[in-house]
Amino acid sequence: MEKKNQDSEQQINIELTEEMAEGVYSNLAMIAHSNSEFILDFIRLMPGIPKAKVKARVIVTPEHAKRLLEALKDNIRRFEEINGPIKPSNDDDSHFNFPISFGGPGGEA
Length: 109
Hints:
Region (Disordered): 84-109
Number of helices: 3
Distance between the termini: 47 Å
Protein name: DUF3467 domain-containing protein
Helix content: 25-40%
Oligomer: single chain
Strand content: 15-25%
């Protein structure tokens, strides 16, 4: 019985370097997937500059992508309970139509 309690109380120590803690700004995400992974590219698009840079790429399993989706939904729900609804942007640039192909089926957010 003691071993069961010890296992359920295991903790993971996560290291966050000062550089990583600063984060990167992204105002566009491109998402692609294969049968075994989801690829999330976080991009910074600057007004008036035709070339955008991928600032971070995260590759996850389909199972982790689904857990990430649920975690985002939960956090958005809690944010909106405190701060009110998040309103979509009315900017003309809010609906991007990029002819970018990552190969295979994909989407964008």
